[in-house]
Amino acid sequence: MRSRREILQYTGAALAALPFAKAFAQASKPEAKSPGGPIVVSTWNFGVQANDAAWKFLGHGGRALDAVIAGVAVPEADPKNQSVGLGGLPDRDGHVTLDACVMDENGNAGSVACVEHIVHVAALARKVMENTPHVMLVGEGALQFALANGFQKENLLTPESEKAWREWLKTAQYRPVANVENHDTIGMVALDAAGNLSGTCTTSGMAYKMRGRVGDSPLIGAGLFVDNEVGAATSTGLGEEVIKIVGSHLVVEQMRLGKSPEEACRIAVERIVKKHPQKREDLQVGFLALNKQGEHGAYCIQKGFQYAVRSDSVNALIDGKSHFA
Ligand code: GLY
Predict the structure, then answer these.
(1) Percentage of residues in the chain with pLDDT exceeding 90?
(2) What is the mean pLDDT of residues 295-323?
């Protein structure tokens, strides 16, 4: 099992292999052009550490895209995080399959879904965006592309996650649950000093999902949407519900109409709640948004969703407001 130090070393090594690391090493801190930036926000409490890694770029004038990929690489490489990357809980047949996507300030997008054996799938989604004519690669094809581009093949099923899966097999009740105990996904969006927005979203998806199941996280517009004129949004929770309202795109479009980030997230949450008006312990969805002015906000179905914020003046974990108390 990797220690915390090894995770950071591992993550650093993975990032060093990427072209943007060189650009970052050469970056100096320019005058901030962005009134609200630089700033980075990300989902859940593991977002705090991830934001620290992103801040190493943003705080030195780095590009938001580089920052978000570096940020989410931390939970992706953490074997103790059972909802992202290495150590993610497997599908019901015991395979760890990962989903991720990325969008940059130019409206470019890349995505991978149902990928096995690759830890840094957000970086892989970036490769799809930058080095192919496509937006999305899935399954075996995504794995082949990863190996051809220098990503290492790894066993992502840790002993802890295998043990949890074997325990689950005793009853094998397939009942997707997204709540505070089974929270999933890191979504991260950032505004850099140059005033540009980017974002990424990466996950192992719902624990014990059907083989081949893909959630909202790799779907542009559902798990993530970035529009450099307006703002960026990402989601966490039960992906099926997010997909059905194209949630992150909805949040950004509400910000375009003048809504604050929190208000835009609330509108998206209430679209889902309208279809499920009774409080259900197993149904959690949270949206997180950042606008072009660097204002942020979140909203979720039920209490428990937190997001992390990092800027020059703030380093905090914030409780998202919820529809149900
Ligand atoms: N929100 C992550 C998933 O449903 O897979």
Answers:
(1) 81
(2) 95
Please, which pLDDT band fits residue 155 given cuts at 50, 70 and 90? very high
Q: Is 323 exposed, middle or buried (0-12, 13-18, 19+ CB in 10 A)?
A: middle
CA distances from 258 to 215, 230, 304 (A): 29, 9, 27
Contacts of 235 (CB under 8 A, 6+ apart): 185, 187, 201, 216, 222, 223, 224, 242, 247, 248, 285, 286, 287, 288
CATH H-level, domain 33-324: superfamily: (Glycosyl)asparaginase (3.60.20.30)
Pocket-testing residue among 72, 208, 238, 301, ligand 1, by greatest number of atoms within 8 A of Cβ: 238
- 29 backbone dihedrals φ, ψ, rounded to 5°: -80, 110
- Would you say the CB of residue 217 lies under 6 angstroms from ligand 1? yes
Does ligand 1 have an atom closer than 6 angstroms to the CB of 91? no
Name the catalytic one among 158, 185, 200, 234: 185
Tokens of 202: 């990466």
Q: Is 236 in the pocket of ligand 1 (CB under 6 A)?
A: yes
pTM of the complete model: 0.90
Distance CA 190, CA 294 (A): 9
Residue 113: φ, ψ to 5°: -140, 145
Q: Residue 33: what pLDDT? A: 59
CB atoms within 10 A of CB 276: 13
Q: What is the mean pLDDT of the chain?
A: 89
Between CA 100 and CA 77 the distance in angstroms is: 14
